[in-house]
Amino acid sequence: MVTDSMKVLWKAAWNSEPMERIKTVVRNALSDAKTWFVEHWERFSDWFDSFASSVKSFFSGFFGGASRLTLPVVMTVDTGMLRRLTSRLQAVQAKIDSVDRRLDRLAGMADLEDKLSYYWLGLGVGYDYELKRCADYLVQTADRIDDCERMTVQRAYS
To answer: How far apart are CA 26 and CA 36, in angstroms?
Structure first.
C-alpha cells in the first residue's frame, strides 16, 4: 500500500535534477531513433520502388514491349554429351550387374554358414533403378532438345 509520504518522496525523486537529465536523455534517444527510422524507411521505400520497377520492366520484355528485343537468350546444350553420359551410366550398370553375378556364383560355392553373409552383400549390389532412371532422363532430355531444335529450324525456314 502506497502511503502519502511515499508519494511525496516519489514526486520529489521524479522532479529532481538527475531525473530530469535522465528524462532528457531518454527523450533525445527516442527522438533520434524515430528520425533514424523515418530516414531509413524512406531509403528502403525508394529502393523497393526502384526494385519493383526494374522487375516490372524485366518481365514486360517477356509479355510484349520494346525491351523484348534487348534481351538476347542463348542456350547451348550438347546433346551428344548427354548421350555419351548415358552410355557411361549404362556401362557402370553393366559392371554392377557383373559384380552381382560373381557374388551370386561365390555364394553358390560357399559353405552354408558363409552363404548368409554373401546374400546380405548381394542385396546391396544389383540392378540399380536410379541409374536406369538417370540414363532414361538423359536420353529423353537429349531427344526433346533435338526435337525442339528441329521444330524451331523448321519454323524459321517456313
So the answer is: 15
